[in-house]
Specification:
By secondary structure, the protein is α/β, with parallel strands linked by helices. Helix 1 (29-40) runs parallel beside helix 14. The protein starts with a strand and ends in an 18-residue tail after the last strand. Bound molecules: ligand NA7.
Length: 554
Protein backbone atom coordinates (compact mmCIF):
# COMPACT_ATOMS: atom_id res chain seq x y z
CA UNK A 1 0.00 0.00 0.00
CA UNK A 2 1.20 3.49 -0.73
CA UNK A 3 -0.56 6.05 1.38
CA UNK A 4 -0.10 9.29 -0.47
CA UNK A 5 0.57 12.21 1.85
CA UNK A 6 1.44 15.81 1.30
CA UNK A 7 5.22 16.11 1.21
CA UNK A 8 6.93 17.90 4.04
CA UNK A 9 10.17 19.80 4.39
CA UNK A 10 12.44 18.68 7.21
CA UNK A 11 13.04 21.61 9.49
CA UNK A 12 15.78 21.41 12.09
CA UNK A 13 15.01 20.97 15.76
CA UNK A 14 15.18 24.07 18.00
CA UNK A 15 18.40 24.05 20.02
CA UNK A 16 17.05 24.22 23.59
CA UNK A 17 13.92 24.79 25.62
CA UNK A 18 12.53 28.02 24.26
CA UNK A 19 11.01 30.27 26.93
CA UNK A 20 8.24 32.28 25.34
CA UNK A 21 4.87 33.71 26.31
CA UNK A 22 2.62 31.75 24.04
CA UNK A 23 2.43 28.94 21.57
CA UNK A 24 -0.19 28.96 18.84
CA UNK A 25 -0.82 25.50 17.44
CA UNK A 26 -1.91 25.68 13.82
CA UNK A 27 -1.66 28.21 11.00
CA UNK A 28 -5.17 28.03 9.61
CA UNK A 29 -7.80 30.74 9.90
CA UNK A 30 -7.57 30.58 13.72
CA UNK A 31 -3.82 30.35 14.07
CA UNK A 32 -3.12 33.22 11.70
CA UNK A 33 -5.51 35.53 13.48
CA UNK A 34 -4.30 34.37 16.93
CA UNK A 35 -0.72 35.17 15.92
CA UNK A 36 -1.82 38.62 14.76
CA UNK A 37 -3.74 39.36 17.98
CA UNK A 38 -1.24 37.99 20.49
CA UNK A 39 1.63 39.76 18.81
CA UNK A 40 -0.22 43.03 19.18
CA UNK A 41 -0.35 42.36 22.92
CA UNK A 42 3.44 42.35 22.83
CA UNK A 43 3.70 38.65 23.59
CA UNK A 44 6.53 36.51 22.31
CA UNK A 45 4.71 33.88 20.32
CA UNK A 46 5.77 30.79 18.44
CA UNK A 47 3.37 29.28 15.95
CA UNK A 48 3.70 25.61 15.09
CA UNK A 49 2.09 24.13 12.00
CA UNK A 50 2.28 20.58 10.71
CA UNK A 51 1.78 21.62 7.09
CA UNK A 52 4.39 23.28 4.96
CA UNK A 53 2.28 26.36 4.54
CA UNK A 54 -0.54 28.40 6.00
CA UNK A 55 -4.22 27.65 5.43
CA UNK A 56 -5.18 24.79 7.77
CA UNK A 57 -8.30 23.21 6.28
CA UNK A 58 -7.57 25.11 3.07
CA UNK A 59 -4.02 23.80 3.00
CA UNK A 60 -4.83 20.13 3.53
CA UNK A 61 -8.10 19.72 1.62
CA UNK A 62 -6.92 20.25 -1.94
CA UNK A 63 -8.91 17.39 -3.47
CA UNK A 64 -10.53 18.04 -6.86
CA UNK A 65 -13.71 20.06 -6.52
CA UNK A 66 -12.97 21.36 -3.02
CA UNK A 67 -15.00 24.49 -2.52
CA UNK A 68 -16.32 26.43 0.46
CA UNK A 69 -20.02 25.84 0.98
CA UNK A 70 -20.65 29.41 2.15
CA UNK A 71 -20.73 32.52 -0.03
CA UNK A 72 -17.36 34.17 -0.37
CA UNK A 73 -18.49 37.47 1.10
CA UNK A 74 -19.46 35.67 4.31
CA UNK A 75 -16.29 33.63 4.56
CA UNK A 76 -13.57 36.20 5.10
CA UNK A 77 -11.88 38.01 7.98
CA UNK A 78 -13.42 41.19 9.33
CA UNK A 79 -10.58 42.35 11.56
CA UNK A 80 -8.95 44.73 9.12
CA UNK A 81 -10.96 47.13 6.98
CA UNK A 82 -8.14 47.62 4.48
CA UNK A 83 -7.90 43.88 3.98
CA UNK A 84 -11.63 43.78 3.30
CA UNK A 85 -11.32 46.52 0.73
CA UNK A 86 -8.21 45.34 -1.09
CA UNK A 87 -9.18 41.70 -1.58
CA UNK A 88 -11.44 40.37 -4.30
CA UNK A 89 -12.75 36.86 -4.56
CA UNK A 90 -13.36 35.93 -8.19
CA UNK A 91 -16.33 33.64 -7.52
CA UNK A 92 -19.43 33.74 -5.35
CA UNK A 93 -18.39 30.48 -3.68
CA UNK A 94 -14.64 30.11 -3.41
CA UNK A 95 -12.65 27.11 -4.52
CA UNK A 96 -9.86 25.85 -2.27
CA UNK A 97 -6.98 27.46 -4.21
CA UNK A 98 -8.65 30.87 -3.90
CA UNK A 99 -9.06 30.62 -0.13
CA UNK A 100 -5.51 29.34 0.21
CA UNK A 101 -4.32 32.31 -1.86
CA UNK A 102 -6.28 34.68 0.40
CA UNK A 103 -4.77 33.18 3.55
CA UNK A 104 -1.28 33.40 2.09
CA UNK A 105 -1.97 37.03 1.34
CA UNK A 106 -3.10 37.58 4.95
CA UNK A 107 0.05 35.86 6.24
CA UNK A 108 2.28 38.08 4.09
CA UNK A 109 0.39 41.29 4.58
CA UNK A 110 0.61 41.08 8.36
CA UNK A 111 4.03 39.41 8.33
CA UNK A 112 2.71 36.43 10.28
CA UNK A 113 4.91 33.77 8.75
CA UNK A 114 8.13 34.72 10.49
CA UNK A 115 7.02 33.41 13.89
CA UNK A 116 5.62 30.13 12.61
CA UNK A 117 7.52 26.89 12.24
CA UNK A 118 6.13 24.84 9.37
CA UNK A 119 6.36 21.09 8.83
CA UNK A 120 6.46 20.55 12.61
CA UNK A 121 3.76 18.78 14.61
CA UNK A 122 2.94 19.33 18.26
CA UNK A 123 2.89 15.96 19.99
CA UNK A 124 2.46 16.86 23.66
CA UNK A 125 1.58 19.73 25.97
CA UNK A 126 2.12 19.30 29.70
CA UNK A 127 1.18 21.77 32.40
CA UNK A 128 3.84 22.36 35.03
CA UNK A 129 2.02 23.51 38.12
CA UNK A 130 5.21 24.68 39.84
CA UNK A 131 6.02 27.24 37.19
CA UNK A 132 2.56 27.86 35.73
CA UNK A 133 4.00 26.99 32.35
CA UNK A 134 2.95 24.65 29.58
CA UNK A 135 5.75 22.55 28.13
CA UNK A 136 4.88 22.08 24.49
CA UNK A 137 6.77 19.37 22.62
CA UNK A 138 7.02 18.61 18.91
CA UNK A 139 7.80 15.58 16.80
CA UNK A 140 11.31 16.99 16.36
CA UNK A 141 11.92 17.08 20.11
CA UNK A 142 11.56 20.86 20.38
CA UNK A 143 10.39 22.07 23.76
CA UNK A 144 8.70 25.37 24.46
CA UNK A 145 7.90 26.67 27.94
CA UNK A 146 4.99 29.08 27.68
CA UNK A 147 2.28 30.53 29.84
CA UNK A 148 -0.42 30.54 27.18
CA UNK A 149 -1.26 27.72 24.87
CA UNK A 150 -3.65 28.59 22.07
CA UNK A 151 -5.00 25.50 20.39
CA UNK A 152 -5.86 26.80 16.93
CA UNK A 153 -6.03 23.20 15.82
CA UNK A 154 -9.26 23.36 13.83
CA UNK A 155 -12.42 21.29 14.16
CA UNK A 156 -12.05 19.04 11.13
CA UNK A 157 -8.31 18.46 10.93
CA UNK A 158 -7.82 14.94 12.27
CA UNK A 159 -8.55 12.76 9.22
CA UNK A 160 -10.40 9.53 9.82
CA UNK A 161 -8.89 6.59 7.95
CA UNK A 162 -11.16 3.73 9.03
CA UNK A 163 -9.28 0.60 10.05
CA UNK A 164 -10.72 -1.63 7.33
CA UNK A 165 -9.06 -5.08 7.40
CA UNK A 166 -6.46 -5.62 4.71
CA UNK A 167 -5.89 -1.94 4.06
CA UNK A 168 -2.11 -2.46 4.25
CA UNK A 169 -2.22 -5.07 1.51
CA UNK A 170 -3.61 -2.72 -1.17
CA UNK A 171 -1.15 -2.57 -4.07
CA UNK A 172 -2.34 0.76 -5.43
CA UNK A 173 -2.40 4.25 -3.91
CA UNK A 174 -4.56 5.32 -1.01
CA UNK A 175 -5.29 8.98 -0.43
CA UNK A 176 -7.52 10.80 2.05
CA UNK A 177 -9.36 13.89 0.81
CA UNK A 178 -8.17 15.77 3.91
CA UNK A 179 -4.51 14.95 3.19
CA UNK A 180 -4.50 15.52 -0.55
CA UNK A 181 -0.96 15.97 -1.86
CA UNK A 182 0.03 19.32 -3.32
CA UNK A 183 1.38 17.66 -6.45
CA UNK A 184 -1.98 15.97 -7.04
CA UNK A 185 -2.85 12.31 -7.54
CA UNK A 186 -2.65 10.51 -10.87
CA UNK A 187 -6.27 9.61 -11.65
CA UNK A 188 -6.32 9.87 -15.44
CA UNK A 189 -7.75 6.69 -16.93
CA UNK A 190 -7.46 4.82 -13.61
CA UNK A 191 -9.98 2.68 -11.82
CA UNK A 192 -10.77 4.87 -8.85
CA UNK A 193 -12.78 3.90 -5.78
CA UNK A 194 -14.20 6.64 -3.54
CA UNK A 195 -15.29 5.62 -0.05
CA UNK A 196 -17.57 8.19 1.62
CA UNK A 197 -20.27 10.54 0.40
CA UNK A 198 -20.16 13.53 2.76
CA UNK A 199 -19.28 17.03 1.53
CA UNK A 200 -15.79 15.99 0.46
CA UNK A 201 -16.90 12.89 -1.44
CA UNK A 202 -19.81 14.66 -3.10
CA UNK A 203 -17.61 17.52 -4.24
CA UNK A 204 -14.81 15.26 -5.47
CA UNK A 205 -16.90 12.58 -7.22
CA UNK A 206 -18.05 14.62 -10.28
CA UNK A 207 -14.51 15.91 -10.79
CA UNK A 208 -12.90 12.49 -10.44
CA UNK A 209 -15.50 11.04 -12.83
CA UNK A 210 -14.30 13.52 -15.48
CA UNK A 211 -10.83 11.95 -15.59
CA UNK A 212 -11.03 8.42 -14.18
CA UNK A 213 -11.31 5.41 -16.48
CA UNK A 214 -13.84 3.90 -14.08
CA UNK A 215 -15.22 5.27 -10.84
CA UNK A 216 -16.81 3.18 -8.10
CA UNK A 217 -18.52 5.10 -5.30
CA UNK A 218 -18.93 3.25 -2.00
CA UNK A 219 -21.83 4.84 -0.15
CA UNK A 220 -22.62 3.89 3.45
CA UNK A 221 -25.28 6.57 3.99
CA UNK A 222 -26.82 8.79 1.31
CA UNK A 223 -26.77 12.50 2.08
CA UNK A 224 -29.05 15.43 1.38
CA UNK A 225 -27.28 17.63 -1.15
CA UNK A 226 -28.68 20.66 -2.90
CA UNK A 227 -27.52 22.24 -6.12
CA UNK A 228 -25.51 25.41 -5.82
CA UNK A 229 -23.51 26.71 -8.71
CA UNK A 230 -20.78 29.23 -8.14
CA UNK A 231 -20.84 32.28 -10.40
CA UNK A 232 -18.25 34.91 -11.17
CA UNK A 233 -18.47 37.71 -8.64
CA UNK A 234 -20.68 40.51 -9.88
CA UNK A 235 -18.53 43.70 -9.69
CA UNK A 236 -21.54 45.84 -8.76
CA UNK A 237 -22.45 43.53 -5.92
CA UNK A 238 -18.84 43.49 -4.74
CA UNK A 239 -18.75 47.28 -4.68
CA UNK A 240 -21.97 47.30 -2.72
CA UNK A 241 -20.62 44.81 -0.21
CA UNK A 242 -17.40 46.75 0.19
CA UNK A 243 -19.34 49.89 0.94
CA UNK A 244 -21.46 48.07 3.51
CA UNK A 245 -19.11 45.61 5.17
CA UNK A 246 -19.82 46.89 8.68
CA UNK A 247 -23.52 46.22 8.25
CA UNK A 248 -22.80 42.77 6.84
CA UNK A 249 -20.55 41.91 9.80
CA UNK A 250 -23.14 43.13 12.28
CA UNK A 251 -25.76 40.94 10.63
CA UNK A 252 -23.45 37.94 10.82
CA UNK A 253 -22.79 38.46 14.52
CA UNK A 254 -26.47 38.88 15.27
CA UNK A 255 -27.51 35.78 13.35
CA UNK A 256 -27.95 32.16 14.29
CA UNK A 257 -25.25 30.68 12.07
CA UNK A 258 -22.88 33.60 11.57
CA UNK A 259 -24.28 34.13 8.09
CA UNK A 260 -25.70 37.50 7.13
CA UNK A 261 -27.66 36.43 4.07
CA UNK A 262 -26.56 39.84 2.82
CA UNK A 263 -28.31 41.04 -0.29
CA UNK A 264 -28.26 44.11 -2.43
CA UNK A 265 -31.62 45.86 -2.36
CA UNK A 266 -33.19 45.63 -5.77
CA UNK A 267 -35.24 48.36 -7.38
CA UNK A 268 -38.44 46.54 -6.34
CA UNK A 269 -37.22 46.37 -2.76
CA UNK A 270 -36.65 42.60 -2.78
CA UNK A 271 -32.97 41.77 -2.55
CA UNK A 272 -31.60 38.81 -4.46
CA UNK A 273 -28.88 36.90 -2.64
CA UNK A 274 -25.89 36.48 -4.90
CA UNK A 275 -25.14 33.04 -3.51
CA UNK A 276 -26.80 31.05 -0.79
CA UNK A 277 -24.63 28.04 -0.07
CA UNK A 278 -25.14 25.99 3.08
CA UNK A 279 -26.61 29.18 4.54
CA UNK A 280 -29.86 28.31 2.78
CA UNK A 281 -30.42 25.87 5.63
CA UNK A 282 -30.25 28.73 8.06
CA UNK A 283 -34.00 28.73 7.40
CA UNK A 284 -34.87 27.53 10.85
CA UNK A 285 -38.30 26.17 9.94
CA UNK A 286 -36.67 23.16 8.26
CA UNK A 287 -34.80 22.52 11.48
CA UNK A 288 -37.62 23.21 13.91
CA UNK A 289 -40.71 21.95 12.10
CA UNK A 290 -40.81 18.21 11.31
CA UNK A 291 -43.66 18.72 8.82
CA UNK A 292 -41.67 21.24 6.79
CA UNK A 293 -38.65 18.97 7.09
CA UNK A 294 -40.67 16.06 5.66
CA UNK A 295 -41.91 18.24 2.79
CA UNK A 296 -38.33 19.22 1.99
CA UNK A 297 -37.35 15.54 2.01
CA UNK A 298 -40.08 14.79 -0.54
CA UNK A 299 -38.94 17.66 -2.76
CA UNK A 300 -35.40 16.41 -2.47
CA UNK A 301 -36.40 12.86 -3.49
CA UNK A 302 -38.25 14.23 -6.53
CA UNK A 303 -35.20 16.25 -7.54
CA UNK A 304 -32.92 13.19 -7.38
CA UNK A 305 -35.36 11.03 -9.34
CA UNK A 306 -35.51 13.68 -12.04
CA UNK A 307 -31.74 13.86 -12.34
CA UNK A 308 -30.75 10.18 -12.09
CA UNK A 309 -31.78 7.91 -14.96
CA UNK A 310 -31.55 4.54 -13.24
CA UNK A 311 -34.37 4.08 -10.76
CA UNK A 312 -32.54 1.77 -8.38
CA UNK A 313 -29.54 4.12 -8.30
CA UNK A 314 -31.81 7.08 -7.60
CA UNK A 315 -33.46 5.17 -4.75
CA UNK A 316 -30.08 4.36 -3.26
CA UNK A 317 -29.09 8.04 -3.36
CA UNK A 318 -32.13 9.19 -1.37
CA UNK A 319 -31.97 9.13 2.43
CA UNK A 320 -35.11 7.71 3.97
CA UNK A 321 -34.37 7.28 7.62
CA UNK A 322 -33.12 10.59 8.98
CA UNK A 323 -34.20 14.22 8.74
CA UNK A 324 -32.59 17.05 6.81
CA UNK A 325 -30.20 18.88 9.08
CA UNK A 326 -28.96 15.83 11.01
CA UNK A 327 -25.80 15.79 8.91
CA UNK A 328 -24.35 18.91 7.39
CA UNK A 329 -26.34 19.57 4.21
CA UNK A 330 -24.06 19.36 1.21
CA UNK A 331 -23.98 21.76 -1.69
CA UNK A 332 -23.31 20.02 -4.97
CA UNK A 333 -22.80 20.77 -8.62
CA UNK A 334 -23.62 17.93 -11.01
CA UNK A 335 -23.29 15.22 -8.37
CA UNK A 336 -26.44 13.31 -9.24
CA UNK A 337 -25.90 13.43 -13.01
CA UNK A 338 -22.50 11.80 -12.47
CA UNK A 339 -24.30 8.51 -11.86
CA UNK A 340 -25.72 8.61 -15.39
CA UNK A 341 -22.22 8.08 -16.78
CA UNK A 342 -21.43 4.57 -18.06
CA UNK A 343 -18.10 4.60 -16.25
CA UNK A 344 -19.59 5.35 -12.81
CA UNK A 345 -20.98 2.72 -10.41
CA UNK A 346 -22.70 3.30 -7.09
CA UNK A 347 -22.23 0.59 -4.48
CA UNK A 348 -24.89 0.93 -1.79
CA UNK A 349 -23.12 -0.52 1.24
CA UNK A 350 -26.43 -0.90 3.08
CA UNK A 351 -27.00 -3.89 0.78
CA UNK A 352 -23.72 -5.44 1.93
CA UNK A 353 -20.80 -3.65 3.56
CA UNK A 354 -17.07 -3.56 2.94
CA UNK A 355 -15.44 -6.65 4.41
CA UNK A 356 -11.83 -5.96 3.48
CA UNK A 357 -9.42 -4.19 1.20
CA UNK A 358 -7.49 -6.65 -0.93
CA UNK A 359 -4.33 -6.11 -2.97
CA UNK A 360 -6.46 -5.26 -5.98
CA UNK A 361 -9.44 -3.39 -4.64
CA UNK A 362 -12.43 -3.38 -2.32
CA UNK A 363 -14.22 -6.55 -1.21
CA UNK A 364 -17.82 -6.16 -0.11
CA UNK A 365 -20.54 -8.61 0.83
CA UNK A 366 -21.89 -7.88 -2.67
CA UNK A 367 -18.70 -8.69 -4.54
CA UNK A 368 -15.22 -7.44 -5.43
CA UNK A 369 -14.48 -4.06 -7.03
CA UNK A 370 -11.02 -3.72 -8.56
CA UNK A 371 -9.35 -0.31 -8.07
CA UNK A 372 -5.98 1.29 -8.84
CA UNK A 373 -6.52 4.24 -6.51
CA UNK A 374 -8.63 4.41 -3.36
CA UNK A 375 -9.87 7.81 -2.24
CA UNK A 376 -10.98 7.90 1.37
CA UNK A 377 -13.53 10.69 1.72
CA UNK A 378 -14.24 9.32 5.18
CA UNK A 379 -14.20 12.57 7.12
CA UNK A 380 -12.63 13.45 10.41
CA UNK A 381 -12.48 12.69 14.10
CA UNK A 382 -14.37 15.94 14.47
CA UNK A 383 -13.92 18.60 17.14
CA UNK A 384 -12.15 16.44 19.73
CA UNK A 385 -9.69 14.55 17.48
CA UNK A 386 -7.40 17.51 16.76
CA UNK A 387 -6.92 17.95 20.53
CA UNK A 388 -6.91 14.36 21.77
CA UNK A 389 -4.36 13.32 19.15
CA UNK A 390 -1.96 15.53 21.11
CA UNK A 391 -0.93 14.18 24.52
CA UNK A 392 -2.35 17.07 26.55
CA UNK A 393 -1.83 16.83 30.32
CA UNK A 394 -3.15 19.39 32.75
CA UNK A 395 -3.03 19.72 36.51
CA UNK A 396 -1.80 16.61 38.36
CA UNK A 397 -0.76 15.03 35.07
CA UNK A 398 -4.40 14.42 34.11
CA UNK A 399 -4.80 13.64 30.44
CA UNK A 400 -7.32 15.40 28.22
CA UNK A 401 -8.04 12.10 26.46
CA UNK A 402 -9.10 10.58 29.79
CA UNK A 403 -11.13 13.62 30.79
CA UNK A 404 -13.01 13.59 27.47
CA UNK A 405 -13.42 9.81 27.17
CA UNK A 406 -17.19 10.13 27.67
CA UNK A 407 -17.49 13.29 25.60
CA UNK A 408 -15.78 16.67 25.58
CA UNK A 409 -16.26 19.09 28.47
CA UNK A 410 -15.24 22.71 28.19
CA UNK A 411 -16.64 25.91 29.65
CA UNK A 412 -18.06 27.94 26.75
CA UNK A 413 -16.01 25.62 24.54
CA UNK A 414 -13.05 27.83 25.42
CA UNK A 415 -11.31 26.37 28.48
CA UNK A 416 -11.54 22.88 29.93
CA UNK A 417 -11.29 22.73 33.74
CA UNK A 418 -7.96 21.46 35.02
CA UNK A 419 -6.09 22.66 31.92
CA UNK A 420 -5.45 26.30 32.78
CA UNK A 421 -4.36 28.82 30.18
CA UNK A 422 -5.04 26.31 27.40
CA UNK A 423 -7.46 28.02 25.06
CA UNK A 424 -9.54 26.05 22.59
CA UNK A 425 -10.36 28.07 19.50
CA UNK A 426 -13.84 26.98 18.36
CA UNK A 427 -13.66 24.10 20.82
CA UNK A 428 -16.49 21.64 21.53
CA UNK A 429 -19.34 23.40 23.28
CA UNK A 430 -19.10 26.48 21.06
CA UNK A 431 -20.96 27.06 17.77
CA UNK A 432 -17.86 25.97 15.79
CA UNK A 433 -18.80 23.75 12.83
CA UNK A 434 -22.45 24.74 13.06
CA UNK A 435 -21.58 28.32 12.29
CA UNK A 436 -19.59 30.36 9.84
CA UNK A 437 -16.14 29.36 11.09
CA UNK A 438 -14.52 32.72 10.33
CA UNK A 439 -17.04 34.59 12.46
CA UNK A 440 -16.64 32.13 15.33
CA UNK A 441 -12.86 32.07 15.06
CA UNK A 442 -12.55 35.84 15.22
CA UNK A 443 -14.84 35.96 18.24
CA UNK A 444 -12.86 33.31 20.12
CA UNK A 445 -9.48 34.79 19.33
CA UNK A 446 -10.70 38.26 20.36
CA UNK A 447 -12.12 36.80 23.57
CA UNK A 448 -8.83 35.07 24.39
CA UNK A 449 -6.72 38.15 23.59
CA UNK A 450 -8.98 40.30 25.75
CA UNK A 451 -8.83 37.75 28.59
CA UNK A 452 -5.03 37.77 28.48
CA UNK A 453 -5.03 41.55 28.42
CA UNK A 454 -7.45 41.62 31.35
CA UNK A 455 -5.23 39.31 33.34
CA UNK A 456 -2.16 41.33 32.56
CA UNK A 457 -3.86 44.53 33.68
CA UNK A 458 -5.02 42.90 36.89
CA UNK A 459 -1.90 41.04 37.91
CA UNK A 460 -3.39 37.66 37.12
CA UNK A 461 -1.52 34.83 35.48
CA UNK A 462 -3.60 31.67 35.49
CA UNK A 463 -7.09 31.20 34.08
CA UNK A 464 -8.96 27.98 34.70
CA UNK A 465 -12.60 27.03 34.34
CA UNK A 466 -14.65 26.37 37.47
CA UNK A 467 -15.78 22.72 37.14
CA UNK A 468 -19.31 23.68 38.25
CA UNK A 469 -19.58 26.35 35.57
CA UNK A 470 -18.26 23.85 33.07
CA UNK A 471 -20.86 21.25 34.09
CA UNK A 472 -23.58 23.87 33.76
CA UNK A 473 -22.41 24.82 30.28
CA UNK A 474 -22.14 21.22 29.10
CA UNK A 475 -25.73 20.68 30.30
CA UNK A 476 -26.83 23.80 28.43
CA UNK A 477 -25.12 22.63 25.21
CA UNK A 478 -26.93 19.32 25.58
CA UNK A 479 -30.33 20.83 26.42
CA UNK A 480 -30.43 23.33 23.59
CA UNK A 481 -29.81 20.56 21.04
CA UNK A 482 -32.69 18.38 22.22
CA UNK A 483 -35.63 18.07 19.86
CA UNK A 484 -33.62 19.24 16.86
CA UNK A 485 -32.73 17.11 13.80
CA UNK A 486 -29.10 17.18 14.99
CA UNK A 487 -29.91 14.86 17.87
CA UNK A 488 -32.74 12.81 16.32
CA UNK A 489 -32.41 9.17 17.45
CA UNK A 490 -32.00 8.13 13.79
CA UNK A 491 -29.19 10.62 13.28
CA UNK A 492 -25.58 9.49 13.01
CA UNK A 493 -23.28 12.40 12.31
CA UNK A 494 -19.80 13.58 13.10
CA UNK A 495 -21.42 16.22 15.33
CA UNK A 496 -22.42 13.27 17.54
CA UNK A 497 -19.11 11.44 17.15
CA UNK A 498 -21.10 8.67 15.44
CA UNK A 499 -18.72 8.42 12.48
CA UNK A 500 -15.87 7.14 14.64
CA UNK A 501 -16.07 3.64 16.05
CA UNK A 502 -15.96 3.65 19.85
CA UNK A 503 -16.38 7.43 20.18
CA UNK A 504 -18.88 8.52 22.84
CA UNK A 505 -22.20 9.56 21.32
CA UNK A 506 -22.39 13.14 22.56
CA UNK A 507 -23.60 16.12 20.57
CA UNK A 508 -20.65 18.51 20.60
CA UNK A 509 -21.38 21.92 19.07
CA UNK A 510 -23.50 24.63 20.73
CA UNK A 511 -26.64 25.17 18.65
CA UNK A 512 -28.18 28.04 20.57
CA UNK A 513 -26.93 30.33 17.83
CA UNK A 514 -24.03 32.66 17.22
CA UNK A 515 -25.84 35.73 18.56
CA UNK A 516 -26.90 34.01 21.78
CA UNK A 517 -23.45 32.50 22.25
CA UNK A 518 -21.70 35.83 21.79
CA UNK A 519 -24.06 37.39 24.31
CA UNK A 520 -23.28 34.62 26.83
CA UNK A 521 -19.52 35.10 26.39
CA UNK A 522 -19.86 38.87 26.76
CA UNK A 523 -22.02 38.50 29.90
CA UNK A 524 -19.44 36.21 31.47
CA UNK A 525 -16.78 38.87 30.92
CA UNK A 526 -19.03 41.65 32.19
CA UNK A 527 -19.60 39.63 35.37
CA UNK A 528 -15.84 39.56 36.01
CA UNK A 529 -15.15 36.34 34.12
CA UNK A 530 -17.94 34.49 35.87
CA UNK A 531 -17.26 30.76 35.99
CA UNK A 532 -13.54 31.19 35.48
CA UNK A 533 -10.97 31.01 38.25
CA UNK A 534 -8.26 33.64 37.88
CA UNK A 535 -5.15 33.33 40.01
CA UNK A 536 -2.70 36.15 40.61
CA UNK A 537 0.80 35.89 39.29
CA UNK A 538 2.18 36.18 42.77
CA UNK A 539 0.60 32.87 43.82
CA UNK A 540 3.05 30.76 41.87
CA UNK A 541 5.95 33.17 42.13
CA UNK A 542 6.30 33.41 38.38
CA UNK A 543 6.06 36.71 36.58
CA UNK A 544 3.07 36.56 34.26
CA UNK A 545 4.64 38.12 31.23
CA UNK A 546 7.97 38.58 29.58
CA UNK A 547 9.49 42.01 29.66
CA UNK A 548 9.08 42.35 25.92
CA UNK A 549 7.68 45.75 25.01
CA UNK A 550 4.24 46.26 23.62
CA UNK A 551 4.21 46.11 19.87
CA UNK A 552 2.59 49.16 18.41
CA UNK A 553 -0.39 48.30 16.27
CA UNK A 554 0.16 48.74 12.57
P1 LIG B 1 -18.18 13.50 6.51
O1 LIG B 1 -19.27 14.45 6.31
O2 LIG B 1 -17.97 12.95 7.88
O3 LIG B 1 -18.41 12.29 5.50
C1 LIG B 1 -17.67 11.11 5.59
C2 LIG B 1 -18.28 10.07 4.70
O4 LIG B 1 -17.51 8.87 4.79
C3 LIG B 1 -19.70 9.70 5.10
O5 LIG B 1 -20.43 9.45 3.94
C4 LIG B 1 -19.49 8.43 5.90
O6 LIG B 1 -20.60 7.59 5.96
C5 LIG B 1 -18.37 7.79 5.13
N1 LIG B 1 -17.62 6.81 5.91
C6 LIG B 1 -16.92 7.02 7.05
N2 LIG B 1 -16.35 5.89 7.47
C7 LIG B 1 -16.72 4.92 6.58
C8 LIG B 1 -16.47 3.53 6.47
N3 LIG B 1 -15.73 2.90 7.39
N4 LIG B 1 -16.99 2.87 5.43
C9 LIG B 1 -17.74 3.52 4.51
N5 LIG B 1 -18.02 4.83 4.57
C10 LIG B 1 -17.52 5.52 5.59
O7 LIG B 1 -16.78 14.11 6.06
P2 LIG B 1 -16.47 15.10 4.84
O8 LIG B 1 -15.00 15.19 4.72
O9 LIG B 1 -17.22 14.71 3.64
O10 LIG B 1 -17.06 16.48 5.30
C11 LIG B 1 -16.62 17.08 6.49
C12 LIG B 1 -16.96 18.54 6.54
O11 LIG B 1 -16.07 19.23 5.67
C13 LIG B 1 -18.28 18.95 6.03
O12 LIG B 1 -19.30 18.91 6.94
C14 LIG B 1 -18.07 20.40 5.62
O13 LIG B 1 -18.09 21.21 6.76
C15 LIG B 1 -16.71 20.38 5.12
P3 LIG B 1 -21.67 7.73 7.17
O14 LIG B 1 -22.50 8.93 6.82
O15 LIG B 1 -20.88 7.94 8.44
O16 LIG B 1 -22.41 6.47 7.17
Amino acid sequence: MTVVHPTSTSPAREPEVAELDAVVVGAGLSGLYAMYRLRRLGLRVRGIEAGDGVGGTWYWNRYPGCRCDLPTIEYSYSFDAELEQEWSFPETMSVQPEIERYLNHVADRFDLRRDFRFGVRVTAATYDESTGRWIVETNLGDRYAVRWCVMATGSLSAPNLPPIPGIDSFAGSIVHTGLWPREGVELQGKRVGVIGTGSSGMQAIPKIAEVAGELTVFQRTPNYAFPVRAKPTDPDFERYVKANYRELRALQRGSRFGISGFTRPAADGNGEPQAVGAGAFADVSVLSDPVINRQMQDLFARMVRKRVNDEATADALIPTDYPIGCKRPVVEAGYYETFNQESVTLVDLRQGGITEITATGVRTEQGDYPCDVLVFATGFDALTGPLTRIDVRGRDGRSLRAKWANGPRAYLGLVTAGFPNLFLITGPGSPSVLSNMVVSIEQHVDWVAEAIEHMRSNGMAVMDADPNAEDGWVDQVHDVAQGTPWTAPSCNSFYLGANIEGKARVFMPYVGGVAQYRAECAEVVKDGYRGFVLTPAIADGVPPFSASPMVAPR
